[in-house]
Amino acid sequence: MKTITATELARNFRQYLDQVEYQGEELIVVRNRHQVAKIIPGPATMTALEALADLYRTLPEDAGRDWLQDSRVGGTADELRDPWGS
Description:
By secondary structure, the protein is an alpha+beta fold. It has helices at 6-11, 13-23, 48-51, 61-73; strands at residues 2-5, 27-31, 34-39. It has two domains: 2-39, YefM-like fold, CATH 3.40.1620; 48-73, no CATH class.
């Protein structure tokens, strides 16, 4: 964790934001020798593929096999259940 003055942050704002974003640096901002802010990295972003990459670990062993088989067989619109039907 790095401590910087508010003046130093104002003069080099982009540089410090880059450190927070790309290097995961946490900053403590001080003014008049008192801590006034803490800047921390935001949550990491993921693509849908990354988010679902380990989904298979949460499923039962046969779920993957059944899904693959079902996706290859396909279905028609007549076979689909109406989710709003009673």
